[in-house]
Amino acid sequence: MTLNDYIEQMSSPENEALQFITRDTNIHVLNPHMLSGQIQGRMLSMLSRMIRPRRILELGTFTGYSALCLAEGLTDDGNLLTIEHNDELETTIRRNLSLSPLGKKIDLVIGDARKELSNGQWTMDNGQFDLVFIDADKREYSDYLDLVYPLVPVGGWILADNVLWDGHIIDPAYDRDKQTLGLRAFNEKVRQDDRLEKVILPLRDGLTIIQKIL
């Protein structure tokens, strides 16, 4: 037994919908390692249930696993907007979301997250987001932060995934890798921003928890 096996055994299990998504993603979808998985999924669910957000924004849906986890903490009248750039995943995402009653609280948009947020149609009429989860193109994380900052109220939360990037974040061998450089720039941007309280958890590929304080 590995330490990770032990952690999984001692943690709450996935529900049936999430178990199906895990199996199906690993069998049928390229780069299945992008799936959040049991431990990170339970962490996202727990954080969301602590915060009790009315509105959640997710950048990067993949196959819908993390969206369903985050939706577990929504208020009764809450909803989650998730934006995915890969249109080839749309059918899979919509099927996966339909596996859970929480799928009815989730709105999927296929498009470029920067463009969708820049045009304002998803935010101006519906207020702000209590919780944002960033898990899209690593090269654009700094842009995403600039775009979502005004959409989060003071006291609101931003989560950013993959911030350690399998250790590449401190590996000189990746000094020319654009995704690594994008994440380094994002991490430094967050570090220097006094409007944000922040902590990086070494969970899976690194998860930054950020609270907007100003």
Q: TL;DR of this structure?
A:
With 214 residues, this protein is an alpha/beta fold. It contains eight helices and seven strands; from the N terminus they run αααβαβαβαβαβαββ. A hairpin with a 5-residue loop joins strand 6 and strand 7.
Low-confidence stretches: none
Structural class: alpha/beta
Spell the H/E element sequence.
Answer: HHHEHEHEHEHEHEE
| DSSP strand count | 7
Radius of gyration: 16 Å
C-alpha end-to-end distance = 45 Å
Mean pLDDT across all amino acids? 95
How much helicity do the residues have? 25-40%
Q: Judging from the principal axes of the Cα atoms, what is the shape?
A: globular
Strand arrangement across the biggest beta sheet: 3-2-1-4-5-7-6
What is the number of helical segments per DSSP (H or I, 4+ residues)?
Answer: 8
Beta content comes to: 15-25%
Biggest sheet descriptor? 7 strands, mixed
